[in-house]
Amino acid sequence: TYDFVCNFQVLEHVVDVHSFISTMVNKLNPGGHLLITVPNSDSKYCSERFGVLDYPPHHMTQWTKKSLYHIANEFPLETVEYYEEPHRLSHYQGLIKGRRESIVNGSGLKIKIIKALAYIVDPIISPYMLDHINYCGMTHGMLFKKTS
Length: 148
Fold this sequence. Notes:
The protein has about 150 residues and is α+β, with helices and mostly antiparallel strands.
């Protein structure tokens, strides 16, 4: 048995989640800790840019903040801390690029000029916009403590 078990970006690939978590919990000493991190299904980046990879056969499950908290209800665990990665600039710029590409369609000269200007202006402006949005990051996790 162990005092600490880590699970980084694995749980979303597991088909039988209950058995997998049960095995980890059974390997923990009483009072031991379990750390789980997964892609954040509540994240705009996950849903808009990473979405195609967040489904089978790549990911078997999706994990929201609520579903992470639910783990403590199913196993002899208590929640110690919830962690959410801050929304990163590269992800924000990816969102802007994807949104702009979906709005501005076509191949005419006017469209090409608008796209060219956007590719120049967006990287300059987006760092200043990042502080004004309230998006959660792409990864989140939870630290649990075994209760018995």
